[in-house]
């Protein structure tokens, strides 16, 4: 049975997971400063045993840590790291939003802006093109990095340890075109890193292809990727044109720098 309850302070739109809610309440309290199990229990009107279990779980996940000197808990740097990254990516998205829209308007294909996290990409911005037949993705949606163009490009610029972690995991074939051989993927990632772009030839959604280039945020060094997506035959038939458009747009965009020579090598 799902552990849920109507939690005070909620929206009133239905039950929420009580374990999740309890964890968030504890994090909110600790944001004001370190605290003990006893004080958290009193402040949250929550049984001490429940508070203790929540804190043990949060500690195991790296969100809080125990000071054994006075038996108090405090937030770790993980909270600040995630909050900081969220703000940085918001700045990146806002800065590149006009570029994303302009590329879609000029070339008619769907454009995605994506970020990487633990083997997946998340689409933080997108703009649909004007072609009646186009690819469909949701803003905020995710995809396995190894089988989409933005994901391959972002995976290619990760530390070698992260690349190997992803390639050692089971790789699911989502279409007949999905590359699940780790040696071949390793070769493709090295090629993407060298040439400064990556191509998806229908490896995530059958009949849908893409091309993407990386972007490095000058002030922070964060990597994101921008790319076109659409029907396979159309995208692969325009690949040199679309690559040049991406490289030119990124090179000209304020606040960003492309991490590859815009002159680049010809797409293949």
TrEMBL record:
HTH iclR-type domain: residues covered: 17-77
**Any idea where the IclR-ED domain is?**
78-268
Q: Biological process GO annotation list?
A: negative regulation of DNA-templated transcription
Q: Does the keyword Magnesium apply?
A: no
User: GO: which molecular function terms?
Assistant: DNA binding; DNA-binding transcription factor activity
Q: Which Gene3D superfamilies match?
A: 3.30.450.40, Winged helix-like DNA-binding domain superfamily/Winged helix DNA-binding domain (1.10.10.10)
Q: Which residues cross the membrane?
A: none
* PROSITE patterns documented for this protein: HTH_ICLR, ICLR_ED
Query: What domain of life is recorded for the organism?
Result: Bacteria
Q: Which UniProt keywords apply?
A: DNA-binding, Transcription, Transcription regulation
Q: Which SUPFAM superfamilies match?
A: GAF domain-like, Winged helix' DNA-binding domain
Q: Does the keyword ATP-binding apply?
A: no
Protein name per the record:
IclR family transcriptional regulator
Q: Which organism is it from?
A: Nocardia flavorosea
